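Practice problem 4.
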């Protein structure tokens, strides 16, 4: 037996992993035994795997997901620190969003729908013309939402260009159902166009009838989740106060990219009404 190979017991003592964790990391391809006896099933690990195992254990103690752990440990050592920093920046962004959401929950649970610090959203009624839309939709949860919207917008634009059609309005994201960690929409991404376009693959054509919608404009800062939820509430309250029935799914209309200043208009929250 190679003197640099360690039996499972010795490997566990050196790495301080539990047998359950070692099996899990093996199944996920993070810590594959250096040698497995074909008859007995006994496993041996290389001495060089001890440092990798300790790194895996530390990353998991920091609650890094297993898929991300694998990405980090497969990097060159010089690149691992930057990868951990990128992941942690995302964690802190998520905590900030949750903190803001909890503040909103405090207001709701306290029955205070209009606290002093709540943003003021001006809501107006507008008429909309009939429009042809190129659309795609998907059922997805909140962690998939951002990538889907950006990818769908790119695919829709490319198909319009390939068809020789012209974009005739802003990108629209229609929420036909709630999107959370548990609720999967569906979500529809649509672009108004003029010209001739054929449906293909997951891309469909839809005609949006003329009508009316209640709408409010948000700055880029106001459009960040969960502040965005306040705009939905403001539009809903305005419709109820005006005696208007909400007849369709709410829409986010993107006025431009995210490269605008935080206090510049970024998107509209619109709700079809009758």
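Answer key:
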């Amino acid at each position: 037996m190679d003197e640099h190979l360690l039996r499972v017991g010795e490997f566990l003592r050196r790495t301080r992993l539990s047998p359950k964790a070692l099996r899990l990391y093996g199944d996920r391809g993070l810590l594959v035994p250096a040698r497995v006896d074909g008859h007995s099933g006994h496993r041996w690990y290389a001495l060089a795997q001890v440092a990798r195992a300790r790194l895996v254990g530390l990353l998991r103690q920091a609650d890094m997901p297993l898929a991300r752990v694998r990405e980090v440990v497969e990097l060159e050592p010089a690149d691992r620190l930057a990868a951990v920093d990128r992941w942690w920046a995302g964690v802190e962004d998520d905590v900030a969003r949750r903190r803001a959401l909890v503040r909103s929950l405090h207001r709701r649970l306290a029955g205070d729908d209009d606290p002093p610090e709540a943003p003021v959203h001006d809501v107006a009624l507008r008429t909309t013309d009939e429009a042809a839309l190129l659309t795609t939709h998907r059922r997805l949860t909140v962690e998939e939402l951002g990538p889907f919207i950006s990818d769908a917008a790119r695919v829709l634009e490319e198909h319009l260009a390939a068809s020789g059609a012209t974009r005739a309005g802003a990108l629209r994201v229609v929420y036909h159902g709630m999107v959370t960690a548990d609720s999967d929409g569906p979500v529809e991404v649509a672009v108004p166009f003029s010209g001739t376009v054929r449906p293909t693959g997951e891309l469909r054509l839809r005609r949006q009838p003329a009508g009316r919608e209640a709408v409010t404009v948000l700055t880029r800062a106001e459009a960040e989740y969960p502040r965005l939820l306040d705009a939905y509430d403001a539009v809903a309250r305005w419709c109820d106060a005006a005696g208007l029935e909400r007849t369709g799914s709410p829409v986010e209309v993107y006025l431009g990219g995210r490269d605008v200043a935080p206090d510049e208009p970024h998107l509209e929250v619109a709700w079809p009404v009758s």
